[in-house]
Each structure stands twice: as C-alpha cells, then as structure tokens.
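Reading a protein record of the kind used here takes little practice once its layout is understood. The fold follows as a row of integers, each naming the local backbone shape at the matching residue. With these conventions in mind, the following record can be read line by line:

_____
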Amino acid sequence: MLEPMKTVGALHTGPDFESGHFLGTCFAFQDRTSFLTAAHCVKSVEEQPLFVFGAFAGPDLRWVDSVITHDDADLAIVSCPNVNHDMVEPFTEIEATRWGDEFCAFGMPVDTQSFGAPHWGEAVTSYGPTPRFFRGHFQRSMTCHFSHLGYKYYAQEMSIGAPAGMSGGPVFSSRDGNVLLGVVTENRENSTQLHTITEESTEQGTLVERVHAVVNYGVCLTLYEHREWLEEKVQEILQ
C-alpha cells in the first residue's frame, strides 16, 4: 500500500501559504509531477497562482505550472514539476468498480478546532485541511451522474460522507492499496428519514415539529471509464 502522505497533498491558491486559500485535495498519478483533483477545485481560480502543499513538498511552496480539465467530468490534472521527487509515490494502476466493492479514501477535509478553556482566557481556533483516512463501500452505481455543479460522469455513491475539502482525494481498493478506483467529487444530503415528531398544544392549536435525520453520501468519479483521457493528457504534460 502506498504511503498516503507521500501521495496526497493539499491545493492552495494565493501568493503564499499564510494568505493563501485552501481549494481541495490532490494526489500523484502516473508520474511524480502530475496530480489529479476535482475540476471544480481549480475552476474558479484559473488566473491565480496555485501551489501544492504536503509532506513531499518540503519547506517550500510547490507551484503548479499547468492545469488540464475534462470537458464534461469533474476531473482535472495539475502539473507540479518542482516537487521533491524522492518523496512522491504516485498511483499507477486503475481498476473498474462494482456495486458493493469496499474501498479506502484519503483526503484533507477542512477542520476547525478550538483550544483552551474559560479559565485560560480566550480560546485559540485552528482552521485548515486535516489529513484523514476513510473506509466504506459503494452502495449505488451511476452510469451518468449529473452533478449539481454542472458536470456529468460515471460515478459511484459511497457509504461515507465527503466533508468540505475532501474533494479531489483518491479512492482506492481496500484489497490492494496501490490500485486507484476514483476521485472524490461531492457530497449529497438525504433527509428522508424521520427522526422525531414533537407535538405541543397552544392557544392557537397544536404545533407539530418534525425533525429529519440528515444522511451524507459522498460521490466518487470512477476513473476506469476515463482512463484513455487520463493517459493522453498525462503524456501531454510530460512532453
């Protein structure tokens, strides 16, 4: 199994890390200088400088010199030629997915943490991408998923949610951690499950409050169906 911290990074925009803006997750694919991510992570910042931050980047910012996005799918390739090559472990194999397959995922969802207690004085809040490992199974296959972001592509619905910042992260086989299955693209909410019903009598009548439990499902763009496009575009970057 690949070492996630040598494969996965965080995409940022801005002049430097302190004043930059976190966009989403990315990961190395085929080559140590090409990274995959979700197209919507980079779509709105096409004219701004991008850089990759991760364990393989070292103390310096690793600037992106080109971005290629798919015409229809929520998929993009970013070229980052100045990463520390010895520290990068790219995915090189892609496998088809099936309904019910178990998977692992790794990404940089945004986290907000408060440190301190009232008797210590004002609490300190930390905000930023936090590396996290996920595990689940594919519970629904979608041969043509129409995203609310305007994309369409082959996809699998995951049994786990995809919190903000997880987009662009790799989804890989639980049987063989070197085999890539897809890219996390979005989160879907379902609130059809009725959680509680509360009734209260008032002078105006009976008030009824219905509380629905919200269930989050992540969406995974499956890469097997886009493997020809990936091979062609990665070769363009490497030439």
Observations:
- The first strand starts at residue 8 and ends at 13.
- Residues 227-238 form the longest helix (12 residues).
- Helices lie at 39-43, 227-238.
- Confidence is low (pLDDT under 50) at residues 114-121.
